[in-house]
Amino acid sequence: MSKVFKKTSGNGNIALYLARRDFVDHVDSVDIVDGIVKVDPSGLNGRKVFVYLACAFRYGSEDLDVIGLSFRRDIWMKKVQVYPPADGNPTKTPIQESLLKKVGDQGCPFSFQMPTNLPCSVSLHPGPSDNGKACGVDFEVKAYVAKEASNPDEVIEKKDTCRLMIRKIQYAPTNKAGPKADISKQFMMSDKPIHLEASLEKEIHYHGDPISVLVKVNNETTKTIKKIKVSVEQLTSVVLYSSDTYTKEVCSEEFGENIAANSTFEKSFQITPVLSNIKEKRGLAVDGKLKDEDTNLASTTLSQGDKEMQGILIHYKIKVTVTASGGGLLGGLTGSDVVVELPLTLMSPKPAEVTDVTVDPVEA
Fold first, then answer.
1. What is the DSSP string of 165-188?
2. Which partner from 7, 107, 171, 258 sits 20 to 30 angstroms from 344, CA to CA?
3. 3-state helix, strand and coil shares in percent for the chain, rounded to the nearest 5
4. Three-class DSSP category at 320
């Protein structure tokens, strides 16, 4: 059974209905955002009813307004007039047909098609002492009563508006063979290198599942390898006026492995990046959430080629570090690291399709 989300304006003249609040980005297309606005014409006094869908970058606390800065910046916005209907009698989606059976003759359908270059819903995790809303990207559907769709001189009362937050999300596509990377490094006072190779069994990993990293080492030097470190780093690119990328380590484990000189080694190591283990770390990117529900580390952003996107884009990489201690008279002074990096795709699995759309309104 699928719930219907409803928000009513303060004066009761309009009510916004959505059958879902999660809309899937399939990379080459995005689910249509469709819903109904119930309108009571007797309270409009000749005004019209509009609906907009906006994707915005939220800078965090609304306290920024006191220094003359907007705490939100619209990345994309589209508005439609729903009452009186401006485009005749458009074809209704199955969801809208179901909603109209509940709402009745006062229901006015609307729909939006988002472009494919918008970011997904994501937030930057606040620190323990941070208050207010987190910085991030969010999506909002808002219905309002006004004389004109966009008149900066017209004051729209809060009692004439109703809004619902929605999410744009991506699910993991079909899995493929995982990436592989290797490197050879030669050290001072050694004429032979250490060969390091790392690989993943599959391309896509789900949030909360262990990640197996196969590590192969061919140590042709006289050094002894004492330690192997496997870590996962989150790369958060904030793309607005300029592009800045922040790197946060979200998981790290060290394994004591003794790899003698002139020997080979092969072993699979498991690590599991989980948000609950690092909740105190400020600035982590997490998947957008509605209300106070639990969430997870932000999913990898999938995109088509070099398509320009704004907002917050997420990528991950795995680093495998092999630490070799120096031999001979100089001992640890000639020790060094060999590092190899792998791209990691971290996402949520696609849920089972919901086929039964039963109208069961709940106040959001």
1. EEEEE-------BPPEEEEEEE-T
2. 258
3. 10, 50, 45
4. strand
Beta bridge partners of 236: 246, 314
Cα separations in angstroms, 78 against 104, 144, 218, 310 = 26, 14, 58, 16
356 has a pLDDT exceeding 50: no
Pull the structure tokens for residue 23. 């809309």
The rounded distance, in Å, linking the Cα atoms of 87 and 109 is: 11
| β-bridge mates for residue 79, sequence order | 52
Is 221 within 8 Å of 261 (Cβ atoms)?
Answer: yes
Amino acid, single-letter form, for residue 348: S
Residue corresponding to tokens 């072993």: 267
Measured distance CA(309)–CA(6) in Å, rounded: 31
Non-local CB neighbours of 216 within 8 Å, separated by 6+ positions: 195, 196, 197, 198, 264, 265, 266
Question: Quick one: residue 193, left, alpha or beta (phi over 0 = left, psi -120 to 50 = alpha)?
Answer: beta
DSSP state string for 190-226: -SSEEEEEEEESBSEEETTS-EEEEEEEEE-SS-EEE
DSSP-derived pairing of the beta strands 311-325 and 336-347 = antiparallel
Q: Which amino acid is at 28?
A: D
**For the segment 257-278, what is each residue's pLDDT rounded down to a tens digit?**
999 999 999 999 999 998 888 8
Residue 352 DSSP one-character state: P
